[in-house]
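Help needed: design a sequence for this.
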């Protein structure tokens, strides 16, 4: 379970623990992971809760997690690829290190952990992978172009993998949350002053929609009715219209 220290990942971890699932909690902040593990144990999480602090933007941190995912003696039956980030601002003036960090965590780490997990799951013909993408994957977004492109990668990647494993004991579910109240926007310096206040979800609601969809082996889930309605408009409208609309909306805000 990556990105378990905060937001959606923390909510997914709590819901999994409440249903008796053992967990390996991954994020950079080991202190927050220890606190969460303690809380889960205090709340009676029966199975083991492991803490694995690692920076997924760093190849040595990623290697640590790959090693744990590959460990035969304690196989991972469910990989939740949730860790992610995205910075807002004009692409040309974004920090190059932050651009690399976004691609490394959202794409490189997610692909490599999925690769290791599916290798082991395919051999056992059993397992589930959850990929946390975003509504931002449905349309190239001005001012968050790198972030939305990384999420478009995830949605496409998940769709391909779902079909690749169809009819086997392995499933891949891609999750498209919309605006969710977590630390995400503050970390990425998003200015949401003029964004609509309606349609936001909380992390618990996203987590429960995620786990319900995975339990039903769904290929993809949009986590609220509001965003499902938006997705119908987004995906059915002609591409030039969508591009012009999101451009107008971004300039207005
Ligand atoms: N919030 C939204 O509106 C929204 C909408 C659509 C999709 N999403 C997606 O949902 C996922 C979770 O986001 P969130 O909203 O829960 O954000 P969040 O509250 O900022 O949590 C992000 C999590 O990712 C971890 N993380 C970030 N960089 C990392 C790194 N280099 N190495 C390891 N872990 C790292 C963070 O832990 P540490 O800081 O401890 O490392 C944290 O646990 C992301 O993939 C995001 O793109 C969010």
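Sure. Designed sequence:
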């Amino acid at each position: 379970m990556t990105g378990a220290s905060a937001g959606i990942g923390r909510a997914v971890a709590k819901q999994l623990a409440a249903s008796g699932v053992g967990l390996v909690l991954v994020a950079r902040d080991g202190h927050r992971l220890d606190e969460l593990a303690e809380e889960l144990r205090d709340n009676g999480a029966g199975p083991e809760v492991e803490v694995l602090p690692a920076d997924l933007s760093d190849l040595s941190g990623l290697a640590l997690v790959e090693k744990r995912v590959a460990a035969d003696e304690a196989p991972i039956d469910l990989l939740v690829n949730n860790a992610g980030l995205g910075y807002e601002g004009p692409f040309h003036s974004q920090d190059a290190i932050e651009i690399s960090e976004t691609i490394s965590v959202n794409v490189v780490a997610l692909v490599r952990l999925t690769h290791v997990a599916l290798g082991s799951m395919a051999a056992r013909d059993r397992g589930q992978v959850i990929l946390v993408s975003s509504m931002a994957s449905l349309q190239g977004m001005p001012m968050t172009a790198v972030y939305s492109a990384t999420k478009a990668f995830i949605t496409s990647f998940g769709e391909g993998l779902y079909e690749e494993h169809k009819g086997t004991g392995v499933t891949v579910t891609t999750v498209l949350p919309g605006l969710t109240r977590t630390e995400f926007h503050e970390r990425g310096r998003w200015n949401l002053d003029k964004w609509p206040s309606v349609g936001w979800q909380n992390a618990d609601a996203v987590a429960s929609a995620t786990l319900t969809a995975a339990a039903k082996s769904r290929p993809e889930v949009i986590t609220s009715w509001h965003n499902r309605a938006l997705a119908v408009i987004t995906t059915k409208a002609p591409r030039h219209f969508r591009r012009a609309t999101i451009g107008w909306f971004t300039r207005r805000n």
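Strands lie at 23-27, 49-53, 78-81, 127-132, 170-176, 180-181, 201-202, 220-222.
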